[in-house]
Amino acid sequence: MSNIEARATLVNQKLKFEGKAADHPSIIIDYIPPLGDGEGYMPLQLLLISLASCSGSTVVTLLRKMGKEVSGLEVTASGERRDEHPLGFKTISLDFNVQSSDIDETCIQRAIQLSEQTYCPVWAMLKNNVVINTTYSIK
Fold first, then answer.
1. Are 12 and 25 contacting, i.e. CB atoms less than 8 angstroms apart?
2. Where residue 126 sits, what CATH number does that domain have?
3. Torsion angle defined by CA atoms of residues 125, 128, 129 and 130, in that order, rounded to the nearest 10 degrees
4. Do residues 137 and 98 touch, judged by C-beta distance below 8 A?
5. What is the number of alpha carbons within 13 Å of residue 125 lying toward its C-beta?
6. Cα(60)–Cα(67) distance, rounded to whole angstroms?
7. N or C, which end of the chain has less CB nearby within 10 Å?
């Protein structure tokens, strides 16, 4: 198995970090005031971005393997946080908005199901700890 490495380095006296992986551009991770200055992504936002992009890429790949045309896909991820510590997500909603001239409901439902059950590693890591609900639309 291959290893993936990333690094987060504190860059100020509050909670602002610079995140970096491989040779890619760095990103800023920060918290809202008073803990931080709100100058970057919060860690849970990055988690939602990871889930949205991972599930989205597997859904597009699966639809194309089904011989379907996909001209666009936007996945919106939103999370409802717990009331007690740790303040992680209680539920996450994923909304898949696919643009295609030949996809029907059966195809998109199957692709989302396979993404959850088999192909998206981020979803696999989260689904036993967080309720993940999905919706979709086809344009």
1. no
2. 3.30.300.20
3. 90
4. yes
5. 9
6. 11
7. N
Cβ atoms of 87 and 103 within 8 Å: the answer is no
CB-based contact 134:97 (threshold 8 Å):
no
| DSSP alpha helix (H) spans, the chain | 43-65, 105-114, 121-126
Whether this prediction's pTM lies above 0.90 is answered by yes
Q: CA–CA separation, 70 vs 60, rounded Å?
A: 7
Q: Which two tokens stand for residue 86?
A: 């740790």
Q: Which residue range(s) make up the domain with 10? A: 1-41
| Average pLDDT estimate for 4-33 | 96
Q: How many CB atoms lie within 10 A of CB 101?
A: 10
pLDDT band at residue 84 using 50, 70 and 90 as cut-offs: very high
Determine the Cα–Cα distance for residues 11 and 21; give it in Å rounded to an integer: 16
Nearest to 108 by CA among 126, 131, 135: 135
Residue type for 82, please? R
* Residues contacting 127, CB < 8 A, separation 6+: 116
